[in-house]
Specification:
mainly beta, five-stranded antiparallel β-sheet, 6% helix, globular
């Protein structure tokens, strides 16, 4: 999948001028808060739809910035359809200043974001340059009906144990990540205040 995703990012991000990555809050590298109302992240990269259509599936998804309670958020909605062995649909973005160029996040320990949705289980996928066979690092989370904050420690990210080559975790070569549904059926959730954090709560 990384090969197809890389091509999608290249085609969609031509002409984008990368923003300078800064810690908006001490100890936190902010990816997006969506308050500017567009699909360009604070790192200067676009949020893109991604489905199994890149591998001959038929799932559908739409990503957009929507108004929420007192602000804006990224809405990801669509339908995961049977027809591919591992159907999926979601939204993704790149992290590096250029396409498929990694960003060193070795100083950070977790991905943190706010989410609300339909109560279903979703997945965050983190793309490492060291992973060459699409067996990316992943972790599941629930999109509850009310806004909640989710923290996913890097230590909790896992590759599949059933296929692909497993590599040790490392955050020095992350080139992108995304949120997606893997369950057949319609889905809808919103994401906001996405950032990488140096410290976990209570540590």
């Amino acid at each position: 999948m990384a090969r197809f995703l890389s091509l999608l990012l290249i085609l969609s991000c031509l002409g984008a001028v990368p923003a300078v990555a800064e810690e908006k809050t001490a100890g936190e590298l902010w990816v997006d808060d969506f308050e500017d109302g567009d699909l360009e992240s604070l790192l200067g990269r676009r949020w893109l739809p991604l489905t199994d259509q890149v591998v001959e599936g038929v799932s559908e998804v739409e990503v957009s910035v929507v108004a929420t309670d007192g602000g804006k958020a990224l809405a990801i909605q669509g339908e995961v359809k049977a027809g591919f062995s591992f159907p999926f649909a979601g939204g993704v973005t790149a992290l590096g200043p250029k396409d498929r160029e990694p960003r060193d996040l070795g100083a950070y320990r977790a991905l943190r974001f706010r989410v609300r949705g339909d109560g279903n289980l979703y997945e965050v996928a983190v793309y490492r340059q060291a992973v060459e066979d699409h067996n990316d690092f992943r972790h599941r989370f629930v999109a509850r009906s009310e806004w909640s904050e989710v923290t996913i420690p890097f230590a909790d990210l896992r590759q599949s144990a059933f296929w692909g080559q497993r590599v040790p975790w490392g955050a020095e070569d992350l080139w992108g990540f995304g949120f997606q549904s893997n369950s057949v059926g319609s889905f809808a959730f919103e994401i906001d205040d996405i950032r990488f954090v140096r410290e976990l709560d209570g540590s």
